[in-house]
Amino acid sequence: MMTTRDKLFYFLYLHRTGLTVFGISLLLLVWPLVERNPYNLGLSNLIAIYALVVLGLNLFIGYTGQISLGHAAFFAIGAYGSAIGTTTFGLPVWPVMVAVALATALVALAVGLPALKLSGHYLAMATLGFNIVVYTILVQWDVVTGGPSGFAGIPYLAIGPLVFDNEVRFHYLVWTFAMLALLLCLNLVRSGVGRGLAALAEDETAAAALGVDIRRAKIKVFVLSAVLAALAGSLFAHCYAFVSPDSFGIFVSVDFVIMVVVGGMGSIWGTLFGTALITLLPEWIESLESFKDILHGLILVLILLFLPQGLVTGIVDAIRTRIAVGRHHA
Predict the structure, then answer these.
(1) Helices (DSSP H) in 141-249: which residue ranges?
(2) Cα separations (Å) of 28 from 35, 227, 240?
(3) Which residues cross the membrane (predicted)?
(4) CA distances (Å), 112 to each of 64, 118, 221, 284, 303, in order?
(5) pLDDT tens, residue by residue, 105-163
C-alpha cells in the first residue's frame, strides 16, 4: 500500500519533465522584473533564439549520429524570408512566418535527400557548401537582400494591439517559443520515435534490424531541425528589425555545433546550457573578442578530448559515478 508521501514522490518522478519546464518557465516569467538592463535582456532573448536552432540541431547530431555545418543557412532563410515577405511585399507577419517555415522544410528536403546519402565528414562538407551558397546569395543579390549592408526596416511582431517592440515584451514571446520547442524535443526523444533515433545514433545496422527506417528517420529529423532554425531566424529578424549576412556565415554554423557539443550530444537539457555558455562567453571575456573563433575552436577540442559526451553530460555522469562508487563502498 503506497503512502501519501510515496504517491507524491511517484507523481513528481512521473511528471518530472513537465514540472522542470514549468519551474524554468516561472523563473523566466519573473526574470524581466529582476533584470532591468535592456542589454542583458537582449542577451537572454538571443539565447532563446539560438536555443531554437540548437535544439533541432542536437536532435540531428545526437540522435542520428550525423553532423551539419549548414544550419546557419536555414537560420538565414527564416530571417530573410520573413524580412522580404513583410517589408518588400507588405504581407502579414504571422502568415509569412508560417509560409517561410514550410518553404524551409521543402528546401531542407531538397538538400537532405541527396546530402543524407553521405555520412561523417562528407555530410559535414556538403552542408557547409550549402551554407556557403546561401551566404553568397545574401551578399551578392543586393537588390533583394540588401547585400553586405543588410536589410533594415523589418516590422516588429504583434498580436492585436500588443506590439513586441522592446526587450521585455520580446522576452516573453521568444522564451515561450523556446519552452514549447524544448517540450517538443523532450517528448520526441522519450517517444517510440525517439528510442528508434537513439538506436540509430548508437548503431545503424542494429537500428535497421530493429525496424528503423534509417534514411527516412534522418531526413525527418533534418527537416524538423531546419524548420526550428527557420522559426528562430524569423524571430531574430523581427526582434532586431535588421539582418545582415554576417549573422549567418559558416562560423555561426560552427558555433551552433559547438553549443551542441558543449551541452552534450543527445542531451536536450544540456542544449540550454551550451547555448547560454557560448553566447555569453564573448561578453565575459571582451578583451579576447578578436580571438573568438580561435577560443571557440579550442573549447571544442578540449571538450572532445576530455569530455567527448559533452560538458553537462560529462559532469552529470561523473557525479553519478561518484555516488555509485560511494554507495558501493558504504
Answers:
(1) 142-145, 167-190, 192-202, 204-209, 214-240
(2) 11, 24, 21
(3) 12-34, 46-65, 72-91, 97-116, 123-141, 170-189, 221-243, 249-282, 294-316
(4) 13, 10, 10, 37, 29
(5) 999 999 999 998 888 788 989 999 999 999 999 999 999 999 999 999 999 999 989 99
Best CA proximity match to 43, nearest among 143, 147, 171, 152: 171
Q: What are the residues whose beta carbons fall under 8 Å from the beta carbon of 113, sequence distance 6 or more? A: 219
8 A C-beta contact, residue 259 and residue 102: no
How many C-beta atoms lie closer than 10 Å to residue 269's C-beta? 18
Q: Which residues contact 302 (CB under 8 A, 6 or more apart)?
A: none
Please enumerate in sequence order all residues whose Cβ is within 8 A of that of 206, keeping only pairs 6 or more positions apart, or say none. Answer: 199
What per-residue confidence (pLDDT) applies to 197? 80
* Amino acid of residue 28: L
How far the first Cα of the chain sits from its last, in Å, is 29
Parallel, antiparallel, or unpaired: how do β-strands 151-152 and 242-243 relate?
antiparallel
- Residues belonging to the chain: 330
Torsion of CA 129, 134, 136, 137, to 10 degrees: 150
Chain segment 7-57, per-residue pLDDT in tens: 676 666 666 777 788 888 889 999 998 888 889 999 999 999 999 999 999
Residue 297 has pLDDT above 60, yes or no: yes
Sign (positive/negative) of CA torsion 221, 100, 128, 71? negative
Angle between helices 38-64 and 167-190 (to 10 degrees): 20
Residue 148 CA to residue 138 CA, distance in Å, equals 8
Which pLDDT score, from 0 to 100, does residue 134 have? 96
What pLDDT is recorded for position 244? Answer: 95
Q: Which domains does the chain have, with CATH numbers?
A: 19-329 (1.10.3470)
The CA distance from 187 to 197, in Å, is: 13
Average the pLDDT over 240-250 and give the result. 93
